[in-house]
Amino acid sequence: MKDSRKAWEYTKEVVFERLDHKMREDKLYLDYSMTLPKLSEMTGTNRTYASRAICEKYKSFRGYINSLRVEHLLADVQESRTAEPEGGDPDEFANSYGFRTRRSLDRILVKETGCTYRKILRRRNRSK
Fold first, then answer.
1. Percent of the chain with pLDDT over 90
2. Can you name the CATH fold of 62-128?
3. pTM here?
4. What is the DSSP string of 3-62?
5. CB of 65 within 8 A of CB of 31?
6. Which residue among 7, 50, 75, 97 sits deepest, i.e. has the most Cβ atoms within 10 Å of its Cβ?
């Protein structure tokens, strides 16, 4: 029993590292239609193992992918690589960060950071 637990501990780390490397390297999280089955297929990983490995570190695949999206967006904001889309479609802006709509982007940002995108921009602009 102990050996099988140790084997799983090792396996889940290897599986997560493979998934995470592919996700970050290819910025797959920016695709709003990315799913666990797609990621599993791209990495040649069993979907069940992939799900278990991700859920050990995050509550769900959706939580994992959204945290990567928020991390990317906040890095762009900090480096002033992004701004409010002027006259553009707010949903297109959200799509560029892997979110289906601007509303879903703000909902996830509030959940992760406590702030909407506009509030984050205002704080950045005030600190300059």
1. 52
2. Arc Repressor Mutant, subunit A (1.10.10)
3. 0.84
4. HHHHHHHHHHHHHHHHHHHHHHHTTGGG-TT--HHHHHHHHT--HHHHHHHHHHHSS-HH
5. no
6. 50
